[in-house]
C-alpha cells in the first residue's frame, strides 16, 4: 500500500510508530498514539503495521493526525502464529526490518522520531543508522521487563528456566525493583521446557540501552520500586504513560448507545436491567484460548453458582450459552471497558492480560485471577499479592489440571457476595487503585506529566 503521510505544512513533527504484530502490542501502541495526538493535534503519526493488522484495525475510527502504512506479513497466515509462536516471533525479528526501512524511504514527510515496540529490537539500529531518535515501548508491566532484563541473575543463582515449574513456590529476592517473587509468578515463558521462545525474547533486551527513551504502559504508582530501579539502569528517560486503554473514548459514552448495532445493544440493555454490582464479567482472553474441557467446567461452574454473569466467549458463545442456562449472557464480543465501568458489574473473572487488568483497575472492579500464559502469571502476582484486589483461582492447582466447576462456583459466589468480608477488602482496594489511576492521568499526575515531558522532547526533534 502506498504510504499516506500527508505533507501538510502545519504538521511540524512526524513520528513513525511500529508495533509488534500482536493484539497485546498493537492496542497499547495505538492508545499511546491517540494520547499523543490528543495532547498535540499538530503531530503527524504514521503507524506502520503488517498487512494483516491493517485489515484488522485499518477501518477503525482514529484521530486525523494518525495514518497507517503497511509492510508485508511476516508469515503467510495468522494460523502460524497461534500454533508456532517461536517461528512467528523469530520472523518479527528477521522479516520486518528491511521492508520497514524501504517504507521510511518512501514516506512523503521526513521522519523526526520513531516509537518501536521493544520486541522489534532492530528498530533501534534503524534509528541509529538514520540518526533518528527511538523510543522503545514496553507494553507490559515494568516488573516483567525487569525479570527478562535481569534473566542472567536467575541463571547465576541456579534458577534455571526449565526447572521453574517444579520449584514454583521458591522465592527469588534479587531481581532489581522486585523485593520478592515466587518462581511460579515469573513470566510463563521462563517455565517452558522448550526454550526457543525464551531465547528469542531475551535477544531483544541488549538493544534497549541503545534507544533514547523507554516507555512503559504502566502507572508509576502501581510499581514504583521497579520503575525506580529501571531509571537507575538506563541513562535516558524512562516514562510511564498507563493505563494504555481507550479511556478517552468513554467521554463519548452518550453517543455510544445510539451508534451500536442491535446485537451489542442487547447486552447493554440486559446490563441496564440488572441490580447494581450483581453481574460477574468473564473473559478468558483473545487468542491463546482455553481447552474446551476447561470451558465446559466454566459453563457448569457459572450455572451452579447461580450468579448473574456476562461472558465474552468468541466463537463458542452459542454452545456455552446453551450449557450455562439463562441466568447470564454469553456473547461473542463486547466493549470490555464500557462493560467493566457499568454499575451493574461487580466482579471480573480475568486471564490477567495487562490490558484487561488495567481496565479492571480503571473501573475499580475486584477480580479473580486465572492466568494462562506469558506475562499473565506475573500480573496475577501483582493483583493478588501486591495490589490485593483479587484472588488467585489457580492457588493449589497443579499445572495441567482442570479447574473444576465446583471450585469455580465457590469462587464466583464469594466474589459476588457483597456481604463477604474478604470480598469487601479486595473491592475496597480496587476502588483505591481506581483513584490512583484517575489521579495518574489527571493534570499533574504521573502518567500525564511523563507524557507531557515526552511530547515536549518529541517536538524538540522536529
Ligand atoms: C484491550 O484494548 C482494546 C482497545 O485498546 C479493547 O478493544 C479490548 O477489548 C481490550 N481487551 C482485551 C482483552 O483485548
Ligand atoms: C514521571 O513520573 C514520575 C512519577 O511521578 C516522576 O517522578 C517523574 O519526575 C516524571 N518524569 C517527568 C519527566 O515528568
From TrEMBL:
Family: Belongs to the UDP-glycosyltransferase family.
Top-rank lineage group of the source organism: Eukaryota
Keywords noted in UniProt: Transferase
UniProt protein name: UDP-glycosyltransferase 87A1-like
UniProt cross-references to Gene3D superfamilies, sorted A to Z: Glycogen Phosphorylase B
Encoding gene (name): LOC105170151
Lineage: Eukaryota, Viridiplantae, Streptophyta, Embryophyta, Tracheophyta
SUPFAM superfamilies linked: UDP-Glycosyltransferase/glycogen phosphorylase
A Gene Ontology molecular function term of the record: quercetin 7-O-glucosyltransferase activity
Pfam families to which the protein is assigned, alphabetical: UDPGT
InterPro entries documented for this protein: UDP_glucos_trans
Transferase among keywords: yes
Amino acid at each position: 500500500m502506498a504510504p499516506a503521510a500527508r505533507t501538510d505544512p502545519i504538521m511540524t513533527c512526524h513520528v513513525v510508530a511500529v508495533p509488534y504484530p500482536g493484539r497485546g502490542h498493537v492496542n497499547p501502541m495505538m492508545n499511546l498514539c491517540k494520547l499523543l495526538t490528543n495532547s498535540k493535534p499538530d503531530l503527524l503519526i504514521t503507524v506502520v503495521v503488517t498487512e494483516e493488522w491493517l485489515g484488522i484495525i485499518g477501518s477503525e475510527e482514529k484521530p486525523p493526525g494518525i495514518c497507517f502504512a503497511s509492510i508485508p506479513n511476516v508469515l503467510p497466515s495468522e494460523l502460524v502464529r497461534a500454533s508456532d509462536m517461536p517461528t512467528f516471533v523469530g520472523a518479527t525479528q528477521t522479516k520486518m526490518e528491511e521492508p520497514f526501512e524501504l517504507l521510511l524511504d518512501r514516506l512523503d514527510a521526513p521522519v523526526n522520531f520513531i516509537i518501536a515496540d521493544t520486541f522489534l529490537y532492530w528498530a533501534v539500529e534503524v534509528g541509529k543508522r538514520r540518526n533518528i531518535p527511538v523510543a522503545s515501548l514496553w507494553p507490559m508491566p515494568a516488573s516483567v521487563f525487569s525479570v527478562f532484563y535481569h534473566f542472567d541473575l536467575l541463571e547465576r543463582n541456579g534458577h534455571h528456566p526449565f526447572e521453574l515449574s517444579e520449584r514454583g513456590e521458591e522465592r527469588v529476592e534479587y531481581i532489581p525493583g522486585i523485593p520478592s517473587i515466587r518462581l511460579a509468578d515469573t513470566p510463563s515463558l521462563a517455565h517452558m521446557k522448550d526454550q526457543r521462545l525464551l531465547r528469542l525474547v531475551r535477544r531483544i533486551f541488549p538493544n534497549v540501552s541503545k534507544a533514547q527513551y523507554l516507555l512503559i504502559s504502566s502507572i508509576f504508582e502501581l510499581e514504583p520500586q521497579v520503575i525506580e530501579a529501571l531509571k537507575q539502569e538506563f541513562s535516558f528517560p524512562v516514562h510511564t504513560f498507563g493505563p494504555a486503554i481507550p479511556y478517552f473514548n468513554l467521554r463519548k459514552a452518550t453517543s455510544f448507545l445510539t451508534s451500536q448495532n442491535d446485537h451489542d445493544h442487547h447486552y447493554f440493555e440486559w446490563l441496564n436491567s440488572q441490580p447494581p454490582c450483581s453481574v460477574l464479567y468473564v473473559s478468558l482472553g483473545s487468542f491463546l484460548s482455553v481447552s474446551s474441557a476447561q470451558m465446559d467446567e466454566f459453563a457448569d461452574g457459572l450455572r451452579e453458582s447461580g450468579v448473574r454473569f456476562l461472558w465474552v466467549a468468541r466463537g463458542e458463545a452459542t454452545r456455552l450459552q446453551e450449557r450455562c442456562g439463562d441466568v447470564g449472557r454469553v456473547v461473542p464480543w463486547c466493549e470490555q471497558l464500557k462493560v467493566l465501568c457499568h454499575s451493574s458489574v461487580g466482579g471480573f473473572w480475568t486471564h490477567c492480560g495487562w490490558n484487561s487488568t488495567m481496565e479492571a483497575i480503571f473501573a475499580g472492579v475486584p477480580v479473580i485471577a486465572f492466568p494462562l500464559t506469558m506475562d499473565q502469571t506475573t500480573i496475577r502476582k501483582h493483583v493478588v499479592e501486591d495490589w490485593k484486589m483479587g484472588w488467585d483461582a489457580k492457588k493449589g492447582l497443579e499445572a495441567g489440571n482442570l479447574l473444576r466447576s465446583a471450585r469455580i462456583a465457590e469462587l464466583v459466589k464469594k466474589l459476588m457476595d457483597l456481604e463477604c468480608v474478604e470480598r469487601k477488602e479486595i473491592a475496597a482496594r480496587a476502588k483505591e487503585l481506581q483513584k490512583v489511576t484517575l489521579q495518574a492521568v489527571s493534570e499533574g499526575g504521573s502518567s500525564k506529566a511523563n507524557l507531557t515531558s515526552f511530547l515536549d522532547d518529541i517536538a524538540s526533534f522536529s
